[in-house]
Design goal:
Number of helices of chain A: 10
Strand content of chain A: 15-25%
Strand content of chain B: 5-15%
Oligomer: heterodimer
Largest sheet of chain B: 7 strands, mixed
Helix content of chain B: 40-55%
Strand order of the largest sheet of chain A: 1-2-3
Structural class of chain B: alpha/beta
Number of helices of chain B: 14
Shape of chain A: elongated
Structural class of chain A: alpha+beta
Shape of chain B: globular
Radius of gyration of chain A: 23 Å
Amino acid sequence: MWDYTEKVKDHFLNPRNVGEIENPDGAGEVGSLACGDALRLTFKLDENKRIKDVKFKTFGCASAIASSSALTEIIRGKTLEEAAKVTNQDIANYLGGLPEEKMHCSVMGREALEAAIANYRGQKVTKEDFEVICNCFGVTDREIIKAVRENDLKTVEQVTYYTKAGGGCGQCHPKIEAIIEKVRKEMEKGAPPPKAEKKKLTNIQKIKLIEETLGREIIPALKADGGDLDLIDIEGNKVLVALRGKCSFCPSSEFTLKQYVESKLREFVSDDIEVEEVRP
Amino acid sequence: MKTVYVDNNATTKVAPEVLEVMLPYFSEYYGNPSSMHFFGGQVQKKVDEARAKVADFLGAEPSEIVFTSCGTESDNAAILGTLDSYPEKRHLITTRVEHPAVDNVSTYLGRKGYRITELSVDREGRLDLDELRESLTDETTLVTIMYANNETGVIFPIEEIGEIVKARGIPFHTDAVQAAGKIPLNMKKSKVDMLSISGHKLHAPKGIGVLYIRKGTKFSPFLIGGHQEKGRRGGTENVPYIIGLGKACELAKKHLDEENTRVKPLTDYLEAKLLEKIPNTLVNGDRVHRLPNTVSVSFEYVEGESILLLLSDLGICASSGSACTSGSLEPSHVLRAMGVPFTAAHGSIRFSLSIYNTKEEMDYIIEHLPPIIQRLRDISPFWKDYLKSQGKI
């Protein structure tokens, strides 16, 4: 049985925005009955060119239906420029993740969106413009390249999970391998230089930044769960805090402290920060 | 939530009577049957009794029964053990619809340079025996053809096939994992040389299987080790499971009539009601030559995994030949070999019953499945298109 997240199950059992909009501004359809899944997406824009209404119809498994439902929720209210930036990873993240073998469902969502936007803009995206690599599932080089780039794919198996390419007879595996190699080389060349070191802070600056980060990034999130946190002291890179409210007796407080508070402070202040709890 | 278990071709419940007879062999009678002392000797006697029960169930001699760990091992041993006995011959004949325990072994042998013939099936899942006749050569080492298909329940004419194969003096193996306990098997009157069965498909536990090897059949052990099973399968006997399988075979023999008088009417009732209540439903496979407990149906324009999860949400446990359930991307090799239309290949559901199922359970499925299919069709882009094309909306 697939290990679906609660969010996938929820969007499968209670899909949002099912249907087809009559006279839509944009419509896109990808997949087919033979392939085992298909998605038809229709949307309408409001006077500010934002997506006012969006609906889907999907033939496919639970994760295909959930991905479609998630997609509609993500893009509603967005401009087309904003919507065009949505990646398949965004769809998967919205659902709290998908089993890797099912990632192609999120890719199908992104492709339908792309097709619908192109349809609105009067552009025609046809498969004929690209080389079909996988004949069993009709997947082109363009789709494979995009999936490899956006999801940092390394193996043929992963490409199959994300695009279905190579999931049939397997004859295209050498071609897929060549594409992966080529794209990864390009990615390495074009990769941004490693992140600049964080600026060296004076002690006063550091204390101020820690306080700011706690106030802006951390405490509101804890409060949302009925907890709180007080800054007790700062000794060098050691930040001493006391957990309050629900956090003080929460069994996962150690986890909260290290995985959440510490990693946030490291992100915003300094890589060498260590958080320690002071108990009363 | 109530559980309606209709996935008995996947595995079955261990019969309470089976579990009961097994238990003393874990803690009380734990001796090794091969030991010289009384403590092992008493266990040996019980293993012999169990072997006799299995033999009786199959219409075989006790000496023709080899206990294995599962159906897959039995299939592997039959194929590889025979090939090993005829090193000069390098041609295997099988079908396109075998279980992976045979199918993947033949793929493996193909890679090793064996010539493999995979017989095709028609739209109903039936073999063409002329194709078999034409495929047999002097080079043919073994013919291995399943007794009944796990996905569709279609029964192959094993005795007719046996006549054809044995007329050429070629060894013949059948994977009877799905047939055993559902239809009568009698090796005394059979042309079969080797036959595989699996305990957990007939209310014994997982982890025990049998390979029947007809007296006089050339065979080299697949699991090489001690003298157990008359040198045909090394490894200390899995005593509690052998005892359990003996009991399960005794029960299966007793219940065989009920497969036709009780299980088959339930299967037929379920099939008829689903066809009546859900439009665009197809039955996969020959409905006449079929196991009494199995029905595979396809619902057009919807996908199997979605159906299964919605059924599962109601406590109904079935299975599907759909791609998405297995992690593969194509529908099952069985449905593809049969040429099930692509509108239906992804929407197949298999119900496989047992003597523990009731009419109430069938009614529960019949009540809940139609709205599930309707709900998924309402989400599917193709259903409305189809209705439009038919002038229905």
